[in-house]
């Protein structure tokens, strides 16, 4: 699919240091291969052992995998547990009670810490508060909050009583929130009066009010409001409750509700970059198991680590690697309310120094924007800060282009810290393809190899496995514990979307294209399948072209979309952000011409963008994903009629539209 006509260059590997390997949970490739072999030889036995050793069960399971009704697989189905009990109570008896669970840094720099004991106390109080309002096991609770200790408390409190939470990212508009509340049939909403980002106060509760006013089914009976500011907000006395008032008189003890391993822990609507939102439903047992295993395997988590995942709790990364995984292994996490560029572009580096962060997990988009910021203003460059506490870096959410990888490696990790480029999705619950940092040699731009237990292949349109070196569709061959269970309320959509008939109905289709290196078998994600371009009969992954553009010394970031073309079928339109100022007139023309030559040279003349537009930024969702569908519309010169409520920076659309 994603043919790369350029000559194959010698693969350059980046190895973890001897010291890292020695202290790692999984040391060396032999250990990795041994785990893969164990899974291949006895798949159920492999998972059963991990689940027995790493998860606390109230009632042990006797059945591992139930495959009788594909693709509705069940894991550990007769086991009983509680996820909050695994994350909190366990840490009260193993010496972690006085350890910091969360270090919270507010937008204005104020730091608040809570120990495991205190977190447990708050979760129990809120859980009892929810029960006092009549919220019961199986009820849905929508959480519409910004990054805060209270947001984690809210998620954990739901888990404690067996209520199914659905966190909606605090940047969604009232109609989007309302749609999710309706779809989930929520009985309660937990929100905050306001959120504070980049020095600005933005409403949350008012948006909940609007969303509920639009509701037709009126399922929501209670709204619980965390008071973040002193702002006056409208309050409906019959429906709304301040969180602190609700918790005040509640007991500090709340017996966890024992749930079946298959009981839904949460629903998370997948980001609306394509189509209507789908509520990905996750389980309790299998999901928790993989959150724990990936903390150990991908992040090599140690009791002394300070773990900072910058993802918002509104996204899957914030669920698995803020709210659940790290707590279930007794780690200390940093939670950040603000944005990377406020009050200055050195904020991330300053926070790493201040909190002595040892594992830093972020998105390529953030890395690229900070590359640009630090080249513009050396004062906020990473070199100005002490980053010596770091030992491991991670990347998530989109392919990281080799240029950004190398910058991250050199300037942040000081060539000392391995980088785990983690490929996964909302639907997979946790990492799928990622290096094990003490084992897997890394290659910039490749997420390397599947984690043990995950059987991943690249297939053609009929589901036939393709040889290494040939691009195709990424699939997962066998059910795995942390997989999506269904699309909430829509089994049919789950079945047809993720288990397509064309591929035989037994392969989970991730929705991404991938290619394996012909020699190493390493995976490179070539972008969403719908992002593949066809120019003169040649298929090109948008990522390939973007990556090459981004490797040009003048370029900070680039996005590429296809545009119908009479001659070539599709032509390439590139949106380019330079490290320097926005170029004008002849200067823009000359840079565009240089960039075309560059792409021609690096990939092939076929990949040369027909059109290049310069802007100061790209349209992105609030989770940092480039909204290619909007770029496609701009490239075609059409009117934007789509929903842009998830767009972080709407003003950029006009600039790009007028950039020709
Ligand atoms: C993309 C985020 C390349 C991919 C965890 C996937 C990646 C989608 C990577 C899921 C990566 C995520 N390399 N692409 N390391 N990580 N993706 O559901 O296209 O928000 O299908 O989950 O992001 O996005 P989602």
TrEMBL record:
Mg(2+) binds at residues 552, 555. Its cofactor is Mg(2+). One of its GO terms (molecular function) is acetate-CoA ligase activity. It catalyses: acetate + ATP + CoA = acetyl-CoA + AMP + diphosphate. PROSITE patterns: AMP_BINDING. ATP binds at residues 397-399, 421-426, 512, 528. Its EC number is 6.2.1.1. CoA binds at residues 197-200, 317, 536. Residues 32-87 form the Acetyl-coenzyme A synthetase N-terminal domain. Residues 544-625 form the AMP-binding enzyme C-terminal domain. The keyword Iron does not apply. Residues 94-480 form the AMP-dependent synthetase/ligase domain. The modification N6-acetyllysine is found at residue 625. Acetylated. Deacetylation by the SIR2-homolog deacetylase activates the enzyme. NCBIfam families: Ac_CoA_lig_AcsA (TIGR02188), PRK00174.1 (NF001208). Belongs to the ATP-dependent AMP-binding enzyme family. Catalyzes the conversion of acetate into acetyl-CoA (AcCoA), an essential intermediate at the junction of anabolic and catabolic pathways. AcsA undergoes a two-step reaction. In the first half reaction, AcsA combines acetate with ATP to form acetyl-adenylate (AcAMP) intermediate. In the second half reaction, it can then transfer the acetyl group from AcAMP to the sulfhydryl group of CoA, forming the product AcCoA. This is Acetyl-coenzyme A synthetase.
């Amino acid at each position: 699919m994603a043919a790369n006509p350029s000559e194959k260059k010698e693969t350059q590997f980046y190895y973890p240091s001897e010291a890292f390997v020695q202290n790692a949970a999984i040391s060396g490739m032999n250990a990795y291969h041994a785990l893969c072999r164990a899974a291949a030889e006895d798949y159920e036995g492999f998972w059963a052992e991990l689940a027995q050793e790493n998860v606390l069960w109230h009632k042990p399971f006797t059945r591992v995998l139930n495959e009788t009704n594909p693709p509705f697989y069940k894991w550990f189905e007769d086991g009983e547990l509680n996820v909050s009990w695994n994350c909190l109570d366990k840490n009260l008896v193993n010496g972690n009670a006085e350890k910091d669970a969360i270090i919270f840094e507010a937008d204005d720099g104020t730091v608040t810490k809570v120990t495991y004991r205190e977190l447990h106390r708050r979760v129990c109080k809120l859980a009892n508060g929810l029960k006092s309002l009549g919220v019961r096991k199986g009820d849905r609770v929508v959480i519409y909050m910004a990054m805060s200790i209270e947001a984690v408390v809210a998620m954990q409190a739901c888990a404690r009583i067996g209520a199914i939470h659905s966190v909606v990212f605090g940047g969604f508009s009232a109609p989007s929130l309302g749609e999710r509340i309706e779809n989930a049939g929520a009985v309660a909403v937990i929100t905050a009066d306001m959120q504070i980002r980049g020095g600005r106060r933005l409403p949350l509760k008012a948006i909940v009010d609007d969303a509920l006013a639009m509701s037709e089914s009126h399922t929501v009976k209670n709204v619980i409001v965390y008071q973040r500011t002193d702002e006056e907000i409208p309050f409906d006395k019959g429906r709304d409750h301040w969180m602190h008032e609700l918790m005040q008189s509640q007991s500090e003890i709340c017996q966890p509700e024992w749930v079946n391993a298959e009981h839904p822990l949460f629903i998370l609507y997948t980001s609306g970059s394509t189509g209507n939102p789908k509520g990905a439903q996750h389980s309790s047992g299998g999901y928790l198991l993989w959150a724990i295993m990936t903390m150990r395997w991908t992040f090599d988590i140690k009791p002394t680590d300070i773990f900072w995942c910058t993802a918002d709790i509104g996204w899957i990364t914030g669920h698995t690697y803020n709210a659940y995984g790290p707590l279930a292994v007794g780690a200390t996490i940093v939670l950040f309310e603000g944005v990377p560029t406020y009050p200055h572009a050195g904020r991330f580096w300053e926070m790493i120094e201040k909190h002595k962060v040892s594992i830093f997990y972020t998105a390529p988009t953030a890395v690229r924007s900070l590359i640009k910021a630090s080249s513009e203003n050396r004062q906020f460059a990473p070199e100005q800060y002490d980053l010596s506490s770091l030992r491991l870096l991670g990347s998530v959410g989109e392919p990281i282009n080799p240029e950004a990888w190398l910058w991250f490696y050199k300037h942040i990790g000081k060539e000392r810290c391995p980088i785990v480029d983690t490929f996964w999705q909302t639907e997979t619950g946790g990492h799928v393809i990622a290096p094990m940092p003490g084992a897997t040699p890394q290659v910039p731009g490749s997420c390397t190899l599947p984690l043990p237990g995950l059987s991943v292949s690249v297939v053609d349109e009929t589901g036939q496995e393709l040889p290494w070196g040939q691009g195709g569709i990424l699939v997962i061959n066998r059910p795995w514990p942390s997989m999506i269970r269904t699309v909430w309320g829509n089994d049919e959509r789950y079945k047809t979307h993720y288990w397509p008939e064309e591929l035989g109905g037994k392969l989970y289709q991730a929705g991404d294209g991938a290619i394996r290196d012909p020699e190493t078998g390493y995976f490179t994600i070539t972008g969403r399948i719908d992002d593949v371009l066809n120019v003169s009969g040649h298929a090109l992954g948008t990522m390939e072209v973007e990556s090459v553009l981004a490797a040009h010394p003048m370029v900070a970031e680039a996005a590429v979309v296809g545009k119908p073309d009479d001659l070539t079928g599709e032509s390439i339109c590139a949106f380019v952000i330079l490290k320097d100022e926005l170029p004008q007139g002849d200067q823009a023309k000359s840079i565009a011409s240089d960039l075309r030559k560059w792409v021609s040279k690096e990939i092939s003349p076929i990949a040369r963008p027909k059109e290049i537009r310069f802007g100061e930024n790209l349209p992105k969702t609030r989770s940092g994903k480039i909204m290619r569908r909007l770029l496609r519309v701009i490239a075609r010169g059409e009117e934007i009629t789509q929903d842009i409520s998830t767009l972080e920076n709407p003003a950029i659309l006009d600039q790009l539209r007028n950039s020709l």
